[in-house]
Amino acid sequence: MTPPTDQYDEMAAEYAEHSAAGLANAHYDRPAILALAGDLTGLRVLDAGCAAGHLARLLAEGGAASVTGIDISAAMVALARERCPAGTFHRADLAAPLDLFEDGAFDLVTASLVLHYLAD
Ligand SMILES: C[S@@+](CC[C@H](N)C(=O)[O-])C[C@H]1O[C@@H](n2cnc3c(N)ncnc32)[C@H](O)[C@@H]1O
After folding, report:
1. CA 19 – CA 52 distance, rounded (Å)
2. CATH class of 5-117
3. Number of alpha carbons in the 13 Å side-chain half-sphere of residue 113
4. In what residue span(s) does the Methyltransferase domain sit (predicted)?
5. What confidence tens digit (pLDDT) does each residue in 16-33 have?
6. Per-residue pLDDT tens for 7-19?
7. pLDDT tens digits for 34-45?
């Protein structure tokens, strides 16, 4: 289920701090996602539901040609831009068509801890 837009806006700073070093995020989730992603060299990566940009930054540092992040929370998008200056971030709803991107714009899509918000 999609949360109200401002749910993560209100907790953005707290989530960003928790996610930076929290056990589940920093030590299980992100390492698992990066292992699944494999060699990022030269890939155009979309991080769907990027939150505060922790994973986006690692993707960029891992050699991706470009990293684009989208999140429904404007506050998260602002934090992601600060954390990952190499990335490009947009406020967008994954429950709606992502018309802002051309078909074939990405080689890899990550969506970590996000899909449970989406009915479809
Ligand atoms: C649990 S956090 C996970 C964030 C990040 N991927 C991570 O692994 O730390 C869920 C994120 O999904 C975003 N989100 C939830 N529903 C969304 C939607 N419909 N479209 C875009 N982002 C959404 C929230 O704003 C929040 O930043």
Report:
1. 9
2. alpha beta
3. 14
4. 45-119
5. 999 999 999 999 999 999
6. 899 999 999 999 9
7. 999 999 999 999
| Token output for 115 | 């899909």
DSSP 8-class letter at 17? H
Q: How many whole angstroms from 46 Cα to the centroid of ligand 1? A: 13
Residue minimizing CA distance to atom 3 of ligand 1: 113
Residue 13 identity: A
- DSSP for residue 107: S
Ligand 1, from 17, 25, 28, 117: best to mutate by most atoms within 8 Å of Cβ?
117
Could you tell me the two tokens for 56? 């986006």
Rounded CA separation 101/97 (Å): 10
Cβ neighbours, 10 Å, residue 71: 28
Structure tokens at 32: 């698992």
